[in-house]
Amino acid sequence: MRHPIILSLCICGALAGCGARSDKAEVERALKEVNVIDESNLSDIMLTVADPNEAVAYFRKSAGANPDRIDLQRGLASSLIRAKKPDQAAAVWARVAEMKGATHEDRLSLADALIRAGDWDAAEAQLNQLPPTVETFRRYRLEAMIADGHKQWDKADSFYQTAVNLTSKPAGVLNNWGYSKLTRGSYGEAEKLFSEALSHDGSLFTAKNNLTLARGAQRKYELPVVQMTQTEKAQLLHTLGLAAVKQGDVSIGAGLLREAVDTHPQHFDVAARALAALDSNVAN
Predict the structure, then answer these.
(1) 71-111 pLDDT, tens digit each
(2) 22 secondary structure, DSSP code
(3) Structural domains in the chain, sorted by start
């Protein structure tokens, strides 16, 4: 955001020039331009680094005062997504999608919000309204998720592959695709997709955890060779331990849970309770 001193100088400079021309309209225009620039900077901050709930309050107030401003309505909808309020976000995106100046991206945002809210049929209806010429990464990622929901596996795989080809940052969609394979019981294929996701973004913990699940389902009880912090290692050992117990390998699972408790830099309550429950069941 512009420093107050700089902002004051801009206003003073604008006023000085306008005063020389004795043009009141010019003064008002100059002030308005400064305010718009400052508002734009504030909106950018609210959409990126501000607390999500503060951003919602800001955009709700601004959009309420300027209901025809599509940029403020978009800001409100995006902030509601950040604040994990997809139902409310979907309602705002639905309004945006019908406003003058709305784009295909706005309808994609509506479909995304509806999926987050669990309204898959409504999301599919929104995607069906888009012309086939809209061939973007975002569309294919959402189409893949819809196909997954219908258990249309071939269709889902095709959409996932297309989405991967349309982005330079495929880690997230590869993780989604891998999870789809995991739910189908295709554990080996899932493992490959999670590994590929991590090759693009080694910090993606959900992919690390999912990779561990896929390996555990195949009775591979060694942690995957990926970069991890000590806390992440403990969490992955916990995941692997539970996977082993689910497979019926109780003693191996207990050992992994014990290692998770010992590895965590702090008290690992979830793993400790799981281990205690397992020991109690074995004793009985």
Answers:
(1) 999 999 999 999 999 999 999 999 999 999 999 999 999 99
(2) T
(3) 40-129 (1.25.40.10), 135-214 (1.25.40.10), 228-283 (no CATH)
pLDDT band at 3 (very low <50, low <70, confident <90, very high): very low
Cα within 13 Å of Cα(14), Cβ side: 18
Asked whether 156 and 180 are in contact (CB, 8 A), the reply is yes
Closest CA relative to residue 19, chosen from 7, 31, 33: 31
pLDDT at position 278, please?
85
267 CB burial (10 A radius; 0-12, 13-18, 19+): exposed
SS3 assignment, position 43 = helix
Does pTM surpass 0.85?
no
The string of DSSP letters for 108-169 reads HHHHHHHHHTT-HHHHHHHHHTS-TT---HHHHHHHHHHHHHTT-HHHHHHHHHHHHHT-S-
* C-alpha to C-alpha distance for 81 and 76, rounded to whole angstroms: 9
DSSP for 191-230, written as a single string? HHHHHHHHHH-TT-HHHHHHHHHHHHHTT--SPPS----H
H or E segment and range at residue 251:
helix 250-263
For residue 83, the 8-state DSSP code is T
For 217-234, b/e burial (b = at least 16 CB within 10 A) is beeebebbebebeeebbb
Neighbouring residues of 137: CB distance < 8 A, sequence distance ≥ 6: 163, 166, 167, 173
Q: How far apart are CA 112 and CA 80, in angstroms?
A: 13
Query: Which phi-psi region, left, alpha or beta, contains residue 248 (left: φ > 0; alpha: ψ -120 to 50)?
Result: left
Question: Which of 69, 89, 90, 92 has the alpha carbon at shortest distance from 80?
Answer: 89
All residues at 6 or more sequence positions from 156 whose CB lies less than 8 Å from its CB, including other chains: 144, 147, 148, 180
